[in-house]
Specification:
The chain is an all-alpha fold and 196 residues long. Helix content is 85%, strand content 0%. The chain contains 9 helices and no strands. Helix 1 runs parallel beside helix 3 and helix 6 runs antiparallel to helix 7. It starts with a helix and ends with a helix.
Length: 196
Amino acid sequence: DSLEVATVADNYAVLHQKLRQYDQAIELEKKSVAIYEKRLGRDKKDLAVAFGNLAESYSASGDNENARLYSEKSLSVMRKTYGDKHPAVASAMDNLAGIYIKEGRLAEAESLQLRALDIFKETLGDEHPDVAICLDNLADFYTSQKRYKQALRRSEDAMDMVEKSLGKDHPLYKSIKGRYETLKEKNAKKEDDKKN
């Protein structure tokens, strides 16, 4: 099997994932991973991406154990490939944090997300859309913990960054703004409940 076959399998797996056909996506990703491991060895970016895609398919199917396993592999390969301070490493950390949240490993998840945020800021600058996405993920985490003030602050920062870099018409801005408005309502309700 060639690297081209691995790439095609990867692309079809992403399509199956979007169609919520997780079993098919997982089988294609496994094939892709096997080809990358055979052809490239264990320390290559393409293999790390395939591990990450496989983790995402497992996560979407509800198999958090395998999702964590492959997400951790993805992060490990990214670190070996790029070192500790690279946007790809930060992205892998942020993805692993999402799985840790599903598993209830909240302190580890928050730590990974904060580290990812620092790496994104350091390597891409404070105004980059990836920084905003990471901030938005942190806002989601804080919302799940009913830490609405922290969530609001992170969401507002994300919204401001996307507005400056991509504009108010960009889908990312609209998505973050919608969550921000929902957060404002939840925070207001929490404050009202405290008063009563």
